[in-house]
Structures are given as C-alpha cells and as structure tokens.
Design goal:
Blueprint lengths: L12 H11 L6 E6 L10 H6 L4 E7 L3 H9 L7 E2 L12 E7 L8 H10 L1 E12 L4 H8 L2 H11 L17 H10 L3 E8 L8 H14 L10 E7 L10
Parallel strand pairs: 1-2, 1-4, 2-3, 4-5
Antiparallel strand pairs: 5-7, 6-7
Helix pairs in contact: 5-8
C-alpha cells in the first residue's frame, strides 16, 4: 500500500497535465524548464506534446557534479544544458509554464533553496512536475545507507559504461511529507500525487525486493517496500490565496 494517500497510477500523467495546460493556452509557445536534465526519463513526453500541435521550448539545467558532467559529455542531446550551482544559476522569474524536476531532489544538497528558486521561475498558473526517489521508502533507505563502494559496484554491474551513480543525499524534501510541507509553505496546489516503482537494477530483482521487504519489516512498516519513487504535479495558483488540496 502506498503511504500518506499517494495514489498509484499511470506513468503518462505528466504528459497528460502538460497537454491539458497547453490546450488552455492555444497559439502560445509552452516554455519548459527542465532542472535535472541528466536524469530525465519518459515521464514527460515533450515529443507527444509537439505532435499534438503545440510549440514547446525546453531549457535544460543541472548541477555541475562529476557524474552530471560525464553524462552531458556522453549524450549529445544534453549539449545545450547549463550546468552549475543550482542555487545561483540565473533564472528569470515567471517565465516557465512548466518546471520539470526529474530525479533531482534526492541527489542534491540544499534542495529546498533550489526548489524555491524553480518555483519563482514558474508563471502563475504554471505546473511544477516533480519525480524523486523517496527518502521514506525501503529502497531510499538502502540507497542512502549502502557504502559508496557497494553502490558503485551495483551501478557498474547493471549499467556498464554509464556515468554514475549520482550521490544519495535524500534531504527531508525528498519525501511525500517534505513535498507536501513545501507546497503548503509556498501556497502551491497539489493536483496529482503518485507512489511509483522505477526499474529495478543491480543484483537480481528478487534479491533487491527481498532486501526492501526486510528493511520495511524492521522499520515496523514505517518504510514502504512496494515503491521507490514519488511523482507530484503541483500548480502555482493564479490566486495567491489558493489553498493546498
């Protein structure tokens, strides 16, 4: 069971919300700010939005860590990305229709500051799309507690030749309670939330799942074993007095 009212659901929810947003703004380009471009997945299908007849412009940002630099060097599609200190990279306020933040919050420090800056870059009425590994899951506990050498060995065995792994920071913001608290503090409206399972990599999947179940049992059920990621779609309201749902 997913904790704290998080709903399991379809992996195309980000694209669904992006299309609904674009339909309400015909004839205007949709500006997407992708913060965490090195770890972006298929959860927001920009090609599908363009194929529906909408003009989409994407700006890409990420941190300037060794792993991210290696990813950017290895993937031509990241050649236009801006890498740097996400607390200081210049961002124009109220210019982005959608801020897409994929698998970033769990791997950076001072994530609350970074996310606050990204919200400032969002237009009123715009959408913040978050995908993060969950600190309060058994998988997240294992990821942040395993020795770096073991994390590296698992990564190399499952993804040979790929840069990684990214750091396992997992500040409190990388959790359902952390994101819900952030939304409440900033007057944002949570439109959708989902507990999801990313692809299992590393040792054989039964070994990984058994380890997660053991951790969950030892935690007395506080850590959930059945999911490892959280996905949120959060709206920046036009009305500053809007309340979090």
């Amino acid at each position: 069971m997913a904790p704290m009212g998080l709903a399991p659901g379809g992996g195309d929810s980000f694209t669904h919300f992006a299309l609904a947003y674009a339909r309400q703004r015909p004839g205007r380009p949709i500006m997407v700010l992708q913060a965490g471009c090195a770890t972006a997945g298929p959860e927001l299908d920009m090609a599908a939005v363009r194929a529906s007849g909408y003009d989409v412009a994407v700006s890409m940002l990420d941190d300037d860590s060794p792993v991210t630099r290696a990813e950017a060097a290895a993937r031509p599609e990241l050649g236009a990305a801006t890498l740097g200190d996400l607390r200081m990279i210049p961002l124009m306020p109220r210019t982005a229709d959608i801020v897409h933040c994929p698998l970033l919050l769990d791997r950076i420090s001072q994530s609350d500051i970074v996310l606050s800056r990204l919200v400032l870059a969002l237009r009123p009425g715009g959408l913040l799309m978050l995908r993060t590994r969950d600190r309060d899951s058994a998988a997240g506990f294992l990821d942040r507690k395993l020795p770096n050498a073991l994390r590296g060995a698992i990564w190399r065995s499952s993804r040979p030749g790929e840069p990684g792994p990214h750091p396992a920071i997992y500040e409190p913001l990388a959790s359902a309670r952390g994101i819900q608290g952030f939304a409440a503090r900033h007057g944002l409206v949570i439109a959708y939330r989902q507990a999801a399972s990313g692809p299992v990599s590393g040792p054989p999947a039964p070994v990984i799942m058994a380890a997660r179940k053991i951790v969950a049992a030892l935690s007395g059920g506080r850590l959930d074993w059945a999911h490892d990621e959280l996905r949120f779609v959060i709206r920046k309201p036009e009305d500053s007095f809007a309340r979090v749902l």
